[in-house]
Specification:
- The chain is mainly alpha-helical.
- It folds into two domains: 43 residues, no CATH class; 36 residues, no CATH class.
- 52% of the residues lie in helices and 5% in strands.
- The relative contact order is 0.10.
- It comes from Araneus ventricosus.
- One of its GO terms (cellular component) is condensed chromosome.
- One of its GO terms (molecular function) is single-stranded DNA endodeoxyribonuclease activity.
């Protein structure tokens, strides 16, 4: 879906906005290592527990699964969503 991200030579780093991650010395080191830093939305404490709950269960559901194409990933995600209760 994002060929520019896939067809890259170097690594791309996505991390949160923790102080140690955005400190000047850290950013200088990442630039020196030629890492591109993907922008991350500002931290929202309101979303954190929900995201943790959702992704923890999604990670468990997808564990040890192998996908051969985009549609198999989408189908697995739909299966995960359909397997959850409304209370989830």
């Amino acid at each position: 879906m994002h060929p520019a991200l896939v067809n890259r030579k170097g690594p791309i780093l996505l991390h949160n906005n923790d102080r140690s991650h955005v400190a000047q010395i850290t950013l200088q080191k990442l630039n020196k290592l030629d890492y591109e830093i993907m922008p991350h939305p500002p931290y929202s404490p309101d979303l954190s527990p929900t995201e943790y709950h959702f992704f923890k269960h999604l990670d468990h559901f997808l564990k040890e699964k192998v996908f051969i194409n985009q549609s198999s990933v989408e189908n697995a995600f739909r299966k995960f969503i359909d397997s959850r209760t409304l209370e989830f």
